[in-house]
Design goal:
Elements lengths: L4 E2 L10 E5 L16 H4 L17 E3 L5 E3 L4 E6 L15 E5 L5 E8 L4 E8 L3 E9 L6 E2 L5 E6 L27 H15 L9 H6 L7 E3 H11 L18 E3 H5 L12 H7 L16 E2 H16 L17 H13 L6 H5 L8 E4 L6 H14 L7 E3 L1 H4 L5 H5 L7 H6 L4 E6 L9 H15 L11 E8 L4 E5 L13 H9 L4 H6 L13 H11 L14 H24 L5 H8 L5 E5 L4 H4 L2 H10 L7 E5 L8 H11 L7 E5 L8 H13 L6 E5 L9
Helix pairs in contact: 2-4, 6-7, 7-10, 14-18, 18-19, 19-21, 21-22, 22-23
Organism: Symbiodinium necroappetens
InterPro entries: Filamin/ABP280_repeat-like, Filamin/ABP280_rpt, Ig-like_fold, Ig_E-set, LRR_dom_sf
Protein name: AbpC protein
Length: 706
């Protein structure tokens, strides 16, 4: 834009000053310099500062914008942004917070954190509904933040009523009464202590004092009431009726059992460094449906940042050994990050970092003992391979389930658990296989994989009515990369005639030994951290009426599950096994019992010189005839194949009663004649009447007559 000359400051009515310009917004300034006078001219230009703060692009977030309680200090952050919405990194702005009834608040203050953030703190004194106006900018030129005015809901303080005590002031025992623990008196003292000092700085009361406050004459402790009281005293948000979620374990237990619990008051508030890393997400939200608590990659990256910082700050494992980021697994993350960070709110980790419900796009099955960094790399690669949106949400149990109420959310029946509800919403399952394939020995992992493959076998649809997918990913330290075996063709395979070749090449890098370990899966031999989970899952598979009883040692339901899993992994590794010359009899047997709907095998690479007629005959006899609907077999370039292979395939095609789509590529390499092509034609003619699509490539076969 063309900028006018600036007015003469000494004589406003006089002529403008030449060489001095009044810059407009979005103006570009050009300077013409000589060849030798840079050093003299440059200092005269002055300095160009940061972009200006735009109130319309700036925003506020934090617990102070939620439900507040009288006498509970609260705060929020103001984030200054430029005209492009980018966060500023310097302070110095004038920020003013104005309440509709300032007399009902105390200690209202604004702190400049000198990094583009401003902390607004206040103490509510009166219950009610109030408005908060926040402006930013120079006096006389200030503007309101986006979203102003903010509505603040302040609720009354918690009142604890005397139980079973008459004739005295509330909260006091009768004069001369037995010296039994008075719940009201002790609990109120605890609350006063927490409210006075704040949860993070509070001196932890003696455990015996906490337990005695809720102990009955029989010596049992009402832990549900104790947990809710302490959590609320620490400033946790309650529901509309002041109710907290139910305590995750039995409400009434012995004093010794209660002493072993990790109550909210016993968990240290998360450290300052953790609060800093979580600050951009810590406004959080409440998500009632557990299947809508999936994690986005940016939130998983936040976990990685936290664990890296934690290791720098002397995180140790349960044995006291220092941890490094590659060693940190999900057991560590739950103990050192998830529970401390969520203690004050007693919520799931997703509710801490999300701003709204995040429905499950993909369900993740994995073992908690794998490195979290490996896990994140696998999901990052899956996101890329499937060409998913950046905000695609992966459901991960440790972050989705409320770790303060995990037993309640999982439930007593796996068929109605949070896992099942998430899978019912997902497009498919991503199975993350750890380096040692320990996941194949864990009962929850096996059950999740079984349910995923069962969805395919029964034709159940996934997200948006599409086929339910089952993808397998792992991180290989030798290749220093995450590699996946995906269901069918995916975005990473592209399109066109080389699609199958690209898929084979991509998946050939998957460590073969991990796949073969899946053939050792026996759900009846699987392990669990809690024996009750193992009993529940095995009895559910066996369709037992009582899920808590000792499970059967053998059952046809176990065998069916094992067959489905073995078949899925046989299909995933059949081509690789043929390429390296492995005996295929075990693969073939598993494939025949797999009940698969879809099978895609492209025999390229080393198979072009190693694949023989006997291998194809074995494959043809092993196709799951009663379930297969979609079959792709690519044999182009396989020079050792002859009419024997074609005859075997033709015979198999005649028995595939549900086949709908078929693609056979037999060009170039295989040596076919009229006999082989005739056998294929006969098989197709006498086979399935449900066939909808056929692609048969027998080009470049010189021995075939017209």
């Amino acid at each position: 834009q063309v900028c006018p000359f600036a007015p003469n400051q000494e004589d406003p009515d006089g002529a403008p000053m030449e060489g001095v310009f009044l810059l407009r917004a979005d103006a570009v300034v050009r300077f013409r310099l000589g060849d030798t006078d840079f050093g003299e001219k440059i200092p005269e230009w002055g300095q160009v500062g940061e972009k200006s703060t735009y109130a319309s692009m700036s925003f506020a977030k934090g617990p102070g914008l939620g439900v507040l309680k009288v006498n509970n200090p609260s705060f929020l952050w103001v984030f200054a942004c430029d005209r492009d919405g980018a966060r500023r990194t310097e302070g110095g702005d004038r920020v003013v917070a104005t309440l509709s009834h300032p007399e009902d608040f105390q200690d209202v203050a604004v702190e400049d954190l000198q990094d583009g953030r401003y902390k607004v703190t206040f103490l509510p004194l009166t219950p009610g509904s109030f408005s908060l106006q926040i402006s930013i900018g120079a006096e006389g030129a200030d503007e309101d933040l986006t979203g102003c005015p903010f509505t603040l809901e302040v609720r009354p303080p918690t009142v604890y009523h005397t139980i079973g005590i008459d004739g005295e002031v509330e909260g006091k025992a009768q004069l001369g009464a037995k010296a039994l623990p008075c719940e009201t008196e002790i609990c109120q003292e605890l609350c006063d202590l927490f409210l006075a000092l704040g949860l993070e700085e509070a001196v932890r009361p003696e455990l015996s004092l906490m337990l005695s406050a809720f102990e009955d004459q029989a010596g049992h402790v009402d832990c549900s009431k104790l947990w809710r009281s302490l959590a609320e005293a620490g400033g946790c948000q309650c529901g509309p009726d002041g109710e907290k979620e139910e305590f995750p374990l039995t409400s009434v237990m012995t004093r010794d059992e209660a002493a072993e619990l990790c109550l909210p008051s016993q968990v240290e508030g998360h450290a300052g460094w953790m609060a800093d890393l979580l600050r951009d997400f810590s406004a959080g939200c409440s998500i009632s449906r557990v299947e809508e608590r999936a994690m986005q990659m940016r939130q998983l990256n936040l976990v990685i940042s936290c664990l890296c910082e934690g290791c720098n700050r002397d995180w140790v494992d349960p044995a006291g050994r220092p941890l490094t980021p590659p060693q940190v697994n999900l057991y560590h993350v739950v103990d050192l990050l998830v529970r401390p960070a969520t203690a004050a709110r007693a919520c799931s980790f997703v509710e801490l970092v999300a701003e709204a419900p995040q429905p499950c796009d993909w369900f993740v099955s994995h073992w908690w003992g794998e490195p979290v960094v490996d896990f994140a790399l696998c999901l990052k690669q899956h996101l890329h391979d499937r060409n998913l949106q950046k905000d695609a949400a992966y459901w991960v149990c440790a972050y989705a389930n409320n770790q303060w109420a995990v037993h309640q959310e999982i439930g007593a029946d796996p068929a109605t658990s949070s896992f099942q509800r998430a899978m019912g919403r997902a497009a498919g399952t991503v199975s993350i296989v750890d380096r040692d394939a320990v996941c194949y020995t864990r009962v929850w992992c096996i059950y999740e994989t079984y349910i995923s493959t069962l969805k395919q076998v029964t034709g159940e649809k996934g997200l948006d009515g599409l086929t339910y997918y089952f993808d397998i990913y792992t991180y290989d330290p030798k290749q220093k990369d995450a590699i996946g075996i995906a269901e069918g063709f995916i975005a990473a395979d592209g399109t066109g005639p080389k699609q199958a070749r690209r898929k084979r090449h991509r998946e050939s890098r998957f460590p073969f030994e991990l796949i073969t370990k899946a053939f050792d899966i026996r759900v009846e031999h699987a392990e669990a951290t809690r024996e009750s989970d193992r009993r529940m899952i095995l009895n559910s598979i066996a369709q037992a009426a009582d899920l808590s009883r000792a499970p059967a040692l053998e059952h046809e339901g176990y065998a069916a599950l094992n067959d489905v899993l073995h078949g899925r992994f046989a299909a995933a590794s059949f081509v690789k096994a043929a390429a390296i010359g492995t005996n295929l009899s075990r693969h073939a047997a598993a494939l025949s019992r797999s009940r698969l709907h879809q099978l895609t095998l492209h025999f390229g690479g080393d198979c072009q010189k190693n694949l023989k007629d006997e291998h194809v005959v074995l494959l043809a006899c092993s196709l799951p005839v009663e379930s297969l609907q979609d079959l792709f077999l690519g044999f182009q370039g396989c020079r050792q194949l002859s009419d024997v292979a074609a005859v075997a395939l033709g015979s198999a095609l005649g028995s595939l009663t549900r086949l709908r789509r078929l693609e056979l590529r037999l060009s170039s390499g295989p040596q076919l004649s009229d006999e082989g092509v005739g056998a294929l034609a006969a098989g197709l003619h006498g086979g399935s009447s449900t066939l909808e699509s056929l692609n048969l490539d027998i080009s470049a076969q010189s021995r075939i007559t017209e």
